Amino acid sequence: MGWFNYYGLAVMAVVMIPNIIYAVKNKGNVAETYNNKLATVAEQVGRYGCFAFMIFNIPYSYFNFWFDYAIIVYLAVNGGLCLAYLIFWIICRNKSGKLRALALSVIPSCIFIFSGVMLLNIPLICFAVIFAVSHILISYKNAV
Fold first, then answer.
1. In sequence order, what are the beta bridge partners of 4?
2. Cβ–Cβ contacts within 10 Å for residue 31, how many?
3. Residue (of 133, 15, 132, 139) closest to 84 by Cα position
4. Residue 100 contacts residue 143 (beta carbons within 8 Å)
5. Residues 121, 115: contact at Cβ < 8 Å?
6. For a 10 Å CB count at each end of the chain, is N or C smaller?
């Protein structure tokens, strides 16, 4: 894999579909009860860092797949996680609560961390950890 990760782009596209639908349907109607500025900034930094490093591989900061058939594991696990994310989103799209908040924040976090580890992509791992901690915290605190 060179500097551009087509598989990462496909994973990002699948994960973004429910987010785009949610944003279009709920323009400005999202009530956030947890307003921690540090957590919000960390979440956004982590999110955009994950987006960037899922798609672009910076030389000398990633080391590609590190065992035989790793690409098969990468595609299978990410495919399964994406499918689980879409299923949870379809089932929970009109509901609220802690289960929905945790499922829809933990699964993308797992996708990013797993992808970073599989590619030994140091920036992706760092941004994924920042994103996971802040996104799960904010989602959990805002769950009704």
1. 56
2. 7
3. 15
4. yes
5. yes
6. C
Q: Are 108 and 36 in contact (CB under 8 A)?
A: no
Q: How far apart are CA 39 and CA 27, in angstroms?
A: 22
Separation of alpha carbons 75 and 45, rounded Å: 26
Give phi and psi for 4, each to the nearest 5: -115, 125
Question: Which residue matches tokens 């894999």?
Answer: 1
**pLDDT 10s digits, 7-34:** 999 999 999 999 899 888 877 666 678 8
Rg (CA), the chain: 15
pLDDT in tens, 44-103: 999 999 999 999 999 888 888 888 999 999 999 999 999 999 999 999 888 888 999 999
Task: Report how far residue 105's alpha carbon sits from residue 89's, in angstroms, rounded to the nearest whole number.
Answer: 11
CA 2: distance to chain centroid?
22
